[in-house]
Fold this sequence. Notes:
Elements: H1 2-16, E1 22-28, E2 34-39, E3 45-46, E4 51-55, E5 65-68, E6 74-75, E7 80-84, E8 100-102, E9 118-124, E10 127-134, E11 160-163, E12 175-178, E13 195-201, E14 207-215, E15 223-230, H2 248-253, E16 262-264, E17 270-276, E18 284-293, E19 296-300, E20 304-307
Parallel strand pairs: 7-8
Antiparallel strand pairs: 1-2, 1-11, 2-7, 3-6, 4-5, 4-9, 9-10, 11-12, 13-14, 14-17, 15-16, 15-18, 18-19, 18-20
Amino acid sequence: MRDLNIVLLIAGLLTTSMSAQVIINEVDMGPTDWFELANAGTSAVNIGGWQVLVAGDSGTSTVPASLVIPAGTMIPAGGLLVITENATLATPVRPPGVPAFYFGGNIFWNSFNVGSGGTITLVAAGQGVDTFNWLAPQGSNPVAPASFSPSFPGPLQGNILYRNKLTATSTVADWVSDSVGTPGAFNPGQVILPTVHLTLSQPGPNLFQVGVATVDPPTPSLEIYNLFSTQQTLPRGSGPLFGVALDAFDQLLLPPGAAPFRTYLNGAGTFNGLYGLALPPGFYVEAVCITIDSGTVGRISDVVSFTF
Length: 308
């Protein structure tokens, strides 16, 4: 039944797995206040024009201060961005290539361990995307449809709070306290699934080649499913997976035992298969690759097509 379940899931996967997800990933309320955004999605996100609202819990800091992300700012799939409070203050050490923006002034957060509060609200086109809450200071209500989850209850180990996974459940279980931050790097417990590239080609007469490569990072030994749509006798459908029927492609067209439909990546996180095919000119296929990690669906490739 596993093959059938994979096919039933594909429509939802194309909607959700290819969508981008930007989250507030780590916060430091120490001597230099900074926080980190992460793109846990499968495609780059243009966050130019997004607004970041921050608030503290004393004096004028209860009025949310605002930063507008510069136009054209991109966070790649699996990428990070650091925002720190002031260019004249010490900035967090981060890996090369990880961008940072300066808030332009004091964020007015104090250390967690002195009971100070703080919030962050990430806003895109007037819609709340994600929030962070420590003691929910007065005057810092989030922008709908985002809402504050309950404040982290402790015990506190330092000035750092970080997400322990790349999914947001809007509960305190998402967060861990620590004394050492990892600005520009993913946190303990966060698993980055690879980007999947699928290629189809015809290297010679009566030959068909299927290539799969995982990057960011290369991931060996994953189970993969290549789903094909063979539309040689039907009009090309309006959907990218029109006509997919399990491994009908290899059952009908390939010699017995030659199946690009289900296999495993090699130790380098790639797969290359060459198959003998005698297909008429103009034969059209579409395909998508699904990787399986620890028994669950991981990442899927973009839909690719090929005409013989």
